[in-house]
């Protein structure tokens, strides 16, 4: 049950008894903020990654990634009633998300006009990489289409694409 209700705060070590204690949640959020200068927000992953790139003085190529789902998969909109249920169910996580979502956009606002241009360029570059690297294959066990290496990927991009498509276990084996 701990992984379902307030799963993010469970991972961050907040005791389950404190999930509905406003002061404890506020203090825990403050502790997270003290530890991390940037918290990435999945719904704004591209913006989060470009901000991370700037903070760490990286290149755009350092933050490229393969999207785990196809662009043509429709995401379900969360309506007001569902949002209210989520908030009631995981109030601590909801507060954590709201706080760091606002923090992300405050940091982005400080970046200047060129930030959104860089995000747009990154999205275009990442979309092209995803197109070059990925194809789909039929999962023999579940019958689903899963992301796989594009059989027609160029030799120039093959090494990068293979690494981007590694699973966590593949990477563990690779590093060992």
State the end-to-end distance: 34 Å
Mind summarizing the main beta sheet? 2 strands, antiparallel
Shape: globular
The number of E-state strands comes to: 2
Q: Which structural class matches the secondary elements?
A: mainly alpha
Mean pLDDT: 88
Radius of gyration: 19 Å
* Low-confidence parts: none
Order of strands, widest sheet: 1-2
The percent of residues in helical segments reads 55-70%
- Indicate the proportion of strand residues: 5-15%
Report the order of strands and helices: HHHHHHEEHH
What does this structure look like?
The radius of gyration is 19 Å and the shape is globular. The chain is mainly α and 176 residues long. The chain contains eight helices and two strands. Strand 1 and strand 2 (145-149) form a beta hairpin. The protein starts with 6 loop residues before the first helix and ends with a helix. The longest helix is centred in the last third of the chain and has 20 residues, at 114-133. The model has no long low-confidence stretch (mean pLDDT 88). Helices cover 56% and strands 6% of the residues. The protein has a two-stranded antiparallel ribbon with strand order 1-2.
């Amino acid at each position: 049950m701990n992984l379902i209700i307030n799963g993010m705060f469970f991972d961050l070590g907040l005791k389950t008894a404190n999930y509905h204690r406003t002061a404890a949640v506020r203090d825990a959020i403050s502790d997270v903020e003290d530890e991390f200068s940037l918290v990435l927000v999945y719904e704004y992953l591209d913006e989060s990654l470009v901000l991370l790139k700037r903070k760490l003085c990286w290149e755009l190529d350092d933050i490229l990634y393969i999207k785990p789902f196809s662009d043509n998969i429709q995401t379900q909109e969360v309506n007001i009633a569902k949002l209210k249920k989520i908030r009631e169910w995981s109030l601590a996580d909801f507060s954590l998300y709201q706080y760091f979502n606002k923090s992300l956009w405050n940091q982005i606002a400080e970046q200047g006009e060129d930030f959104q241009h860089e995000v747009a360029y990154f999205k275009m570059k990442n979309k092209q990489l995803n197109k070059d690297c990925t194809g789909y294959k039929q999962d023999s066990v579940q019958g689903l289409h899963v992301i796989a290496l594009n059989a027609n990927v160029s030799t120039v991009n093959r090494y990068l694409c293979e690494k981007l498509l590694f699973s966590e276990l593949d990477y563990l084996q690779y590093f060992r």
